[in-house]
Structures are given as C-alpha cells and as structure tokens.
C-alpha cells in the first residue's frame, strides 16, 4: 500500500459533548457498530462517576483507564478510524481543547432535552478557530426533548454555525417512532434497545399511504409538513461546505438504544475528511510529504509513582514514522529514537514498526516532552494550533516543607509540562509561582501528585486574579518599561513570555486602553 493509500484510509476524529449528553455511550456504540468490540459495556467509562466520594480520587482511578482509551482505533469499510478520547469533566476542558488540535474532524453530541450547553459553546469555539468539520448528533430522542426545529435554531445561534439535518425525527420522547433519512428517502423505525446491528431501514415514499400505515396518520402528516419545510429552508447539502467548517450536518438518534448510530457511522465514513494538511510556523505541511513530522498533543503520567515515566501522544502529520529511527526534537535540538512506540487497536495496545499521517503513536518519555513539541526528520519547524487560553482560577503555590523545595520545583515543572495546569512565574517577587487552571479539581490533583510522586508537600493560596493576557510590543523598550511599571501584575509563562495578570476584567480593559503600544493577547499563540 502506498503512503497515499494509507493517508486516504484514515479518519481521525474526536467526539465532544457537554458532560452527560452521551459521549461515552456514543463512543462505545460506534466501536460496537464498527465491529471493534462485541458487546456493549466492554469499554470502561472514563468519566468521573457522579456521587463518587472524592472526585480527585476517582480521577486517580480514571488515569489508568484513560491511557487505554486515549485513542481507539478500528477498521471499518476499509477505513482506519481513530477516535481520540476527550475528558468529559469540565475541569479538564483544556485537555479537550488540545486533543481537538490533533483531529481532522469532530462529532458533537447534543442532549435533545438540554440543547446547547455552556461547555459545548466553548468546544465549538475551538473547532471554529481551526475550521474543523463538525457533524452533530442529537441524542436521547427517546426523552421528551425540545422541538427539533427549535433545537436547530438554537444550534445555529449559540454555536455560530449553519446546520443541515440529514435525518429527521418522527415525534419525540415516549412517542418517538424513528427517523426519516432525508437523502436516502428511507425510514428507520425505532425500537428500544436494538441489540442487533442489521439494518432495519426501509425505503419509503413519504407521500404514499405506506407512511400512514407505518407511523400513523398524524405523524405521517407532520413528517410531510416538516420535510417540505426543511427542503424550503435548508438548501442542498454540499460536502464542501461541511469540509470547510461552514455547515454541520445533523443526525437524530438515541445512542443508548443503538438508534441512529449506523446512519451516523455510514455518513461519517462517507463524508469525513482524511488526514489534513497542517500549519507550522514556517509553512503548511502536506501529509503526503516524504519526510516524517508530527507533534505532541497530550502527555500522560504513568500510574506507578516509582517510575516517573510518561507517555507522550504524538500525532503523525506527514511521512512515515518508523520505530528505532532517529528524529529531531525541534525545541531541544536533539535527536531521539523510540524502541517501543505503540498504537491502539480497540482496547489493546501493540508495538508498531511504522505509523502514517493521521495516526497517533504513544511514546515512552522520560521528561523530554512538553505539550506542543514538534518532531521532524531534520527540518526546523514548529506545529501551531496548541494555544494556551487564560486560566479561570489562579492560586499561589506555597511550599510546606523547605527540605523538599527541589522536589516541589521539579514536580510542578513536570506536571505543568503535562498540561495539568499553567504555571506563571514571578521572579521579581521572590520567584512566586502562580498556578492557573480551569477548575478547582486540578489543585487537588496537583497537591496529591506532588506528594505521592515527588514527596513534596504544598498548599494553594487564593490570588485575586481574573485573567492572564500575554503581552508583546513592537518596541522592546516599551515592553521593558511596562514590565517595570506593572511589576506586581507581571509574570512569565514557562516559555518566558511576559504575561499580564489582571485583578479584574475592568483593570484589564483600562490597561489595554491606556497602553496602546502594548499588545494584549488572549491566547498564547501570537507569534
Ligand atoms: P457523557 O459521556 O457525555 O458524560 O455521557 P454518557 O454517555 O455517560 O451518558 C450520560 C447518561 O445518559 C447515561 O446515563 C447514559 O446511559 C444516558 N444516555 C445516553 N444516551 C442516551 C439515550 O439515547 N437516551 C437516554 N434516555 N439516555 C441516554 P446514566 O444514568 O448517567 O448512566 P448509566 O447508569 O446509564 O450508565
């Protein structure tokens, strides 16, 4: 098989949703329908169980599981499907943002009762930044949800994307009868807990009496009316508009009942993009290029505290990745090779000899990698699209055991390399360490891991900071002057970029207004 064939075979995507909308269920059902697992329930849920005694102990338990589910690969219709897992808990949203930089498309799950929820909006913002193609699956149609037209309006308004239904539900909740496929003009009638995977789809002319027989006169008439309206309101579906991220096709179903999953999988494999070209700081890299390149989008610490080795997840972007071959770690300007790169087939992982663009490879790491690092076959380029966003909570790291300050230092550096939180240093203020996160849970995780993995004890003290903005200026003197004047509010991120820490949005706005020579950036990617 040529590298072109390998590239065209691959579909690398992520499933995203607000917690509880059904991401885990849908992932499992896709594996089931794709033939990767034989029974539902085989994939362990990596979500934080509701009512767990302690969320962060649960996270420790989950860390083991989520290594195994980081990438789920299976073959379907001669395609190689790579599902990249994203954490469901909102405190780990940053992990999800980073994983989204490594996919070529996304399936977004919406709960038909709850509609568009807050986390969905943020996740879609990240997709829109990169024009990632999105397919929407409206789940839980067996529940009394909102009117489907209202849901579509809400999707368009809140997610700022045009939608195009490809299936249409017949009634909802207790009276849900199934979906009509608007393109194949076929009917898929609902029965709860469909365990069989064979298609129960029948072609039907909705204008004939056959429809009335199948779904009853009232629902048949409603469907006819809806279909006319859809055809009037939404134009033809063009694949290009989906690929460019302008229009999101929409499916309706019920993942837990295995309903609508087959249509979704079949359409996904038909229209979703294969491995895409990617932007670097110097040029666009095409997957077909001969030379290997890729980037690290996720780092996972092993559970065993005695061995501090980690697994770095590399997304291959171009060329062929080979086991035991030396590649250049661009940031460190160092050549590295890997004896045991591994890949994942359903739940098993196996050592691979080679990998192709679109694949994700797990690499054992002893501390060489940070999130965003690029590996190449010699070229100096850096993949883009892994920005940091301003954290939402800021606390100062306080050392509780002066004898262990070295361990604390090392631990917090390594944990923040993994992307658990962002670290801002204030060397001018006695080397203060401000740790920024998107959720309280991370502080517990850091505290726990510092103690158990590094033997260091710490406490976190609240700091009155509302936003972190990266700052630059064309004239280095102006920047130095601003940094000197605003001493208390200035910190540096781990790459030594200057960051302005604002106590409130109002203070930030005033500073932006009063300092026209300084550029304030809301993400770390401004170069
Ligand atoms: P998440 O990963 O997005 O957080 O959601 P997950 O799949 O875990 O689903 C959240 C809950 O919604 C689960 O129930 C799941 O069974 C249920 N669910 C998923 N799809 C459907 C559907 O199509 N219809 C209905 N009615 N429910 C659905 P749970 O009670 O939290 O967990 P469980 O005890 O059922 O596992």
TrEMBL record:
Encoding gene, per UniProt annotation: prfC
NCBIfam families registered for this protein in UniProt = prfC (TIGR00503), PRK00741.1 (NF001964), small_GTP (TIGR00231)
Entry keyword annotation includes Protein biosynthesis: yes
Classification via Pfam families = EF-G_D2 (PF22042), GTP_EFTU (PF00009), RF3_C (PF16658)
What organism does the UniProt record list as the source?
Arcicella aurantiaca
Q: Quote the PROSITE patterns the UniProt record gives.
A: G_TR_1 (PS00301), G_TR_2 (PS51722)
Q: Which HAMAP family match?
A: Rel_fac_3 (MF_00072)
Q: What does this protein do?
A: Increases the formation of ribosomal termination complexes and stimulates activities of RF-1 and RF-2. It binds guanine nucleotides and has strong preference for UGA stop codons. It may interact directly with the ribosome. The stimulation of RF-1 and RF-2 is significantly reduced by GTP and GDP, but not by GMP.
**Keywords from the named record:** Cytoplasm, GTP-binding, Nucleotide-binding, Protein biosynthesis
Q: Outline the extent of the Tr-type G domain.
A: 8-277
- Cite the Gene3D superfamilies for this sequence: P-loop containing nucleotide triphosphate hydrolases, Peptide chain release factor 3, domain III
Which PANTHER family does this UniProt record tie to the protein? Answer: PEPTIDE CHAIN RELEASE FACTOR RF3
Q: What is this protein called?
A: Peptide chain release factor 3
């Amino acid at each position: 098989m040529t590298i072109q064939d390998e590239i065209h075979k691959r579909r690398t995507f992520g499933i995203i949703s607000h917690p509880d909308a059904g991401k885990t269920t849908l992932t499992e059902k896709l594996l089931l329908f794709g033939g990767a697992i034989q029974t539902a329930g085989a994939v362990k849920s990596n979500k934080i169980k509701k009512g767990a005694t302690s969320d962060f102990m649960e996270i420790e338990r989950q860390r083991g599981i989520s290594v195994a589910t980081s990438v789920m690969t299976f073959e379907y219709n001669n395609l190689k499907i790579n599902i990249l897992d994203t954490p469901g808990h909102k405190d780990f949203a940053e992990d999800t943002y980073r994983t989204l930089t490594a996919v070529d498309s996304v399936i977004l799950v919406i709960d038909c009762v709850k509609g568009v929820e807050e986390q969905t909006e943020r996740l879609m913002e990240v997709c829109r930044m990169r024009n990632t193609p999105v397919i929407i699956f409206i789940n839980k149609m067996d529940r009394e949800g909102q009117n489907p037209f209202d849901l579509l309006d809400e999707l368009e308004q809140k997610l700022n994307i045009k939608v195009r239904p490809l299936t249409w539900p017949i009634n909802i909740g207790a009276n849900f009868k199934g979906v009509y496929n608007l393109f194949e003009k076929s009917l898929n009638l609902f029965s709860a807990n469909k365990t069989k995977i064979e298609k129960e789809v029948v072609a039907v002319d909705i204008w004939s009496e056959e429809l009335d027989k199948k779904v009853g006169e009232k629902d048949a008439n409603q469907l006819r009316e809806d279909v006319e309206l859809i055809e009037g309101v939404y134009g033809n579906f063009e694949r290009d508009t989906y690929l460019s991220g302008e229009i999101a096709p929409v499916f309706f179903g019920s993942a837990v009942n295995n309903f609508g999953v087959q249509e979704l999988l079949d359409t996904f494999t038909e229209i979703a993009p294969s491995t895409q070209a990617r932007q670097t700081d110097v040029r666009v890299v095409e997957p077909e290029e001969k030379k290997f390149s890729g980037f690290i989008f996720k780092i996972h610490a092993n559970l065993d505290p005695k061995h501090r080795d980690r697994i770095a997840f590399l997304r291959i972007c171009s060329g062929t990745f080979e086991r035991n071959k030396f590649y250049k770690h661009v940031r460190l300007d160092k050549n590295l090779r890997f004896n045991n790169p591994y890949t994942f087939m359903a739940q098993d992982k196996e050592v691979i000899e080679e990998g192709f663009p679109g694949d994700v490879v797990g690499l054992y790491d002893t501390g060489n990698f940070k999130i965003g690092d690029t590996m190449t076959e010699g070229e100096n380029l850096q993949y883009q699209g892994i920005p940091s966003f301003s954290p939402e909570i800021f606390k100062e790291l306080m050392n509780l055991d002066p004898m262990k300050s070295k361990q604390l230092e090392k631990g917090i550096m390594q944990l923040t390399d993994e992307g658990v939180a962002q670290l801002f240093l204030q060397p001018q203020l006695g080397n203060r360490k401000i740790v920024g996160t998107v959720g309280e849970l991370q502080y517990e995780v850091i505290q726990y891991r510092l103690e158990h993995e590094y033997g260091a004890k710490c406490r976190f003290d609240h700091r009155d900071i509302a936003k972190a903005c990266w700052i630059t200026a064309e004239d280095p003197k102006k920047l130095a002057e601003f940094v000197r004047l605003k001493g208390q509010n200035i910190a540096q991120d781990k790459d030594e970029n200057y960051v302005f820490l604002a106590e409130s949005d109002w203070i930030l706005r005033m500073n932006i207004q009063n300092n026209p020579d300084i550029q304030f950036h809301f993400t770390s990617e401004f170069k």
